[in-house]
């Protein structure tokens, strides 16, 4: 992307984030975004086909660097894997807390399932590695789904309670439940 394209994309992201602080996701239109970003309709569509694709891009921006290097070494002991998972989940929650306004807007909205779908896609990769150490008589896909779904619900609960508990405490509660 050249600088002009980067500038337009940044303006769209910032406009969307600003709108999310004021309106529910479902009430935001592409017209609202382009008006707030002060870009043309064709500029918006050059970057994103839909508002949902913009949401996906924002989710990618929020989660990508966190999830890039989260795979664990299969040769680690269970204790090491648990510790690594705890650290990664705490790191994730700290980032979510930093993005509290954006995240809370997604999680309280009636369209939170869309945000959670993207979130769960990222979590699935992380928990798939962790699921290797689970009971071998239970299918790995089942275990992974359980971890992903329960952690996503934990994040919803944490967000609905104002993210007041420190991330490490939330993760410790979660880890105690899945051990």
Question: What features would you describe in this structure?
Answer:
With 179 residues, the protein is mostly helical. It has helices at 3-22, 30-37, 41-47, 51-67, 78-98, 100-108, 112-131, 140-160, 167-178. The mean pLDDT is 84.
Features:
mainly alpha; 9 helices; 179 residues; single chain
Please estimate the helix content: over 70%
Assembly context of the chains? single chain
**Strand portion, in percent?**
under 5%
Poorly predicted runs are none
The counted number of beta strands is: 0
The number of helical elements comes to 9
Q: Describe the biggest sheet?
A: none
Structural category: mainly alpha
The secondary-structure element order is HHHHHHHHH
Rg result? 18 Å
Gap from first CA to last CA = 45 Å
Calculate the mean pLDDT score and round it: 84
What characteristic shape results from the CA principal axes? elongated
Short description:
With 179 residues, this protein is mainly α. Helix content is 75%, strand content 0%.
Secondary-structure blueprint:
Elements: H1 3-22, H2 30-37, H3 41-47, H4 51-67, H5 78-98, H6 100-108, H7 112-131, H8 140-160, H9 167-178
């Amino acid at each position: 992307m050249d600088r002009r394209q980067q500038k337009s994309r940044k303006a769209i992201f910032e406009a969307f984030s600003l709108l999310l602080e004021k309106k529910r996701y479902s009430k935001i239109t592409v017209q609202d975004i382009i008006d707030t970003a002060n870009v043309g309709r064709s500029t918006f569509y050059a970057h994103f086909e839909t508002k949902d694709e913009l949401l996906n891009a924002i989710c990618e921006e929020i989660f990508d660097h966190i999830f890039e290097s989260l795979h664990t070494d299969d040769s680690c002991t269970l204790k090491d894997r648990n510790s690594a998972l705890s650290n990664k989940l705490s790191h994730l929650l700290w980032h979510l807390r930093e993005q509290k306004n954006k995240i809370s807007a997604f999680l309280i909205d009636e369209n939170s399932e869309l945000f959670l779908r993207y979130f769960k896609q990222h979590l699935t990769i992380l928990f798939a590695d962790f699921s290797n150490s689970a009971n071998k008589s239970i299918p790995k896909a089942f275990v992974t789904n359980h971890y992903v779904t329960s952690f996503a619900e934990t994040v919803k609960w944490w967000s609905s309670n104002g993210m007041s508990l420190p991330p490490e405490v939330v993760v410790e509660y979660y880890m105690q439940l899945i051990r």
